[in-house]
Amino acid sequence: MTVIQAKNLTRRFGDVAAVDHLNLEIAEGEIFGLVGPDGAGKTTTLRLLCGLMDPTEGSVIVAGHEVARDPDAVKDQIGYMAQRFGLYGDLTVDENMAFYADLFGIVGRERRELTGRLLRMARLEPFRKRAAGKLSGGMKQKLALVCTLLHKPRVLFLDEPTNGVDPVSRRDFWAILYQLVTDGLTVFVATAYLDEAERANRVGLMHRGRMIRCDAPRALRNDLDHAYYNIHSADPHKTRQALQGQPGVLSVLPAGEDLRLILDERVVHAAELTSVAPFTWRRILPSLEDVFIALVRHEEEIAHAA
């Protein structure tokens, strides 16, 4: 069942298209990751999908309601966590939860049970009496998340929720998201962390307001024309110098103690280059970062040719 549908969604600011004719369908119970650098249009996309901003063109349907025609019905079905969520630093964890429960009209037994369950899930129970301003960055984000979940939304929109958060807290945050999805929640998360996007069911790669590719992470990694190799050499610096500029060599970059070699195999194979510089090679699957860089480079080449 489709729970989010965008058709030709566009938002312009003057002559700049922050979001450019976006078409997207997201199924119920899916974790969808929107990836792109700063300025790619991720936050604008989220705000359009949530009804916090009017589109210049196109339409959005969320949880069965057209956002432009029935924004209040959409807001009842979604949770939105901005990059800087509105926690009150001088209120305790319990007091922040109570404040948002009041906003959502959650009272009595339902409030007690839901608050307790969410705090246990986020492992925040030992900190209920601590002021939010004194929590670590990761715990603040988890508190912001559980506050967003108090009214039991069907769709959760997260705008770079783990930006600046330590790796352990990022892992905990994603563990919570996986648990929520098993309960039927749909999650739309914008992130600049490509390794984090690997955790999503599908990933949309955004560049200059346009969705340049959308698929499952493994499908994206298997769909590149170029070949990727891990190169081990006794003298990586000398090997890199020897390989750079060779026909078919698109890139040679340091990768820890080894090198990452990207080839156009229509021109040359890694085995043929061992005569230029001695090395051992192993073909590898590209990372999402490799995929994104390759696709952006392709987009830039097309734009330059035009």
Walkthrough of the structure:
By secondary structure, this protein is an alpha/beta fold. The chain folds into two domains: 2-221, Rossmann fold, CATH 3.40.50; 225-285, 2-Layer Sandwich (Alpha-Beta Plaits). The protein is 35% helix and 29% strand. It is built from ten helices and 14 strands. The strands form three sheets. Strands 6-7-8-3-9-10 form a six-stranded mixed beta sheet, with helices on both faces. A four-stranded antiparallel beta sheet has the order 2-1-4-5, covered by helices on one side. A four-stranded antiparallel beta sheet has the order 12-13-11-14, covered by helices on one side. Helix 3 runs parallel beside helix 5 (137-148) and helix 5 (137-148) runs parallel beside helix 6. The radius of gyration is 23 Å and the shape is globular. It starts with a strand and ends with a helix. The mean pLDDT is 90.
For the record, give the distance between the C-alpha atoms at the N and C termini, rounded to a whole number: 40 Å
Q: Which percent range describes the beta-strand content?
A: 25-35%
Radius of gyration: 23 Å
* CATH class identity of the largest domain: Alpha Beta
Structural class: alpha/beta
Overall 3D shape: globular
User: CATH topology of the largest domain, what is it called?
Assistant: Rossmann fold
Number of domains: 2
Q: What are the secondary-structure elements, in order, as H or E?
A: EEEHEEHEHHHEHEHEEHEHEEEH
User: Tally of extended strands?
Assistant: 14
Mean pLDDT: 90
- Major pleated sheet: 6 strands, mixed
Which spans of ≥5 residues are poorly predicted at pLDDT below 50?
Answer: none
Look at the structure and name the CATH superfamily of the largest domain. P-loop containing nucleotide triphosphate hydrolases
Number of helices: 10
User: Which sequence of strands runs across the widest sheet?
Assistant: 6-7-8-3-9-10
CATH architecture of the largest domain: 3-Layer(aba) Sandwich
Share of helix, binned: 25-40%
